[in-house]
Design brief:
This protein is α+β, with helices and mostly antiparallel strands and 291 residues long. The protein contains 8 helices and 15 strands. Helix 1 packs across helix 2 (147-157). The longest helix is centred in the middle third of the chain and has 28 residues, at 89-116.
């Protein structure tokens, strides 16, 4: 059994017929930043329409966020799911009711988790629009055997149950908060996906390697380290490394600091300290990794 996703009472059915569509429709779901592409043969949908779509999770309510595009103008590696219809008042009422029911479902699931003594922290609960499935998201440090929990929840809710394990970055995105910059965290404000962030990005920006200060609320490296990484790589091209020994006008110096914003570097030896521009550092000095 996989420990991150499990559906109770649901069988995987492969569709033998691939549906083709004339137009692609960009859809965004409530509370999500990322847009998804669905297919349609109906050209009546316009930006702002509330629509019902068929997803891998079941029927869901989404919003059209852009004009339709001819299918030949997009590149898709997987078959598109369909836009079924415009949402009715009943659909909107069901969506609102589902949110209230999800609050109660989360309380019920949390009680079952505590009763069974499972080491998992529940994050959210969500019903599909037709209430054929309820999806519980959780975080856990170790593998969780939740077979008994699945049985108990299925007997209570009388529908399919999905338990989805998410990581610390997904948890931070869901909960939100204020970052060290004083603004809402990037993940909850606008980032549709998570990029790979490495400590080398901090090194490229000559930041002090203090993991606590370089980490976000999720405990992982700050997403914003990537924003200016390409620029810093360009600015640092053909420059010596920090603390590297080099020769300038016949004297030996050590690179004690560099400032990419002011475009200057400080060189020191036992007798003196001098300031050079980054262009002077590139062109007028001799160092080991000079290209």
């Amino acid at each position: 059994m996989e420990d991150h996703v499990k559906n109770f009472g649901e069988e995987s059915v492969e569709q033998s017929v691939v549906q083709t569509y004339t137009h692609a429709c960009s859809i965004r779901f409530k509370g999500a930043k990322k847009a998804y592409t669905f297919g349609t043969n109906d050209t009546k949908y316009v930006q702002g329409d509330q629509v019902i779509v068929d997803t891998v999770r079941g029927l869901e309510l989404g919003e059209v966020i852009a004009d339709l595009k001819p299918i030949e103008k997009i590149s898709m590696s997987t078959p598109l799911k369909p836009v079924l219809r415009k949402a009715t008042k009943q659909d909107l009422d069901n969506f609102a009711k589902n949110r209230d029911m999800a609050v109660e479902a989360m309380k019920t699931c949390d009680e079952s988790i505590r009763k069974l003594g499972l080491d998992m922290h529940l994050i959210s609960a969500e019903y599909t629009l037709d209430r054929s499935k309820v999806i519980f998201s959780y975080v856990a440090d170790e593998r969780v055997d939740f077979r008994e929990l699945l049985k108990e929840l299925a007997s209570i809710f009388k529908c399919r149950i999905e338990l989805r394990q998410i990581g610390p970055r997904d948890k931070a995105k869901f909960i939100g908060g204020i970052g060290t910059c004083g603004m809402e965290t990037c993940c909850s404000r606008f980032l549709p996906d998570f990029d790979v962030i490495s400590i080398n990005m901090a090194k490229n920006q000559l930041l002090a390697l203090n993991i606590q200060k370089l980490s976000g609320q999720c405990g992982k490296l700050l997403c914003c380290l990537k924003y200016e990484d390409d620029l810093y790589k360009e600015l640092r091209a053909n420059l010596p490394k920090m603390n590297e020994l080099l020769e300038y006008k016949g004297k030996k110096y050590r690179v004690s600091s560099m400032n990419m914003l002011t475009g200057t570097a400080k060189l020191e030896n036992r007798e003196e300290a001098i300031i050079l521009t980054l262009n002077e550092l590139r062109n007028d000095t001799s160092f080991s990794n000079k290209q």
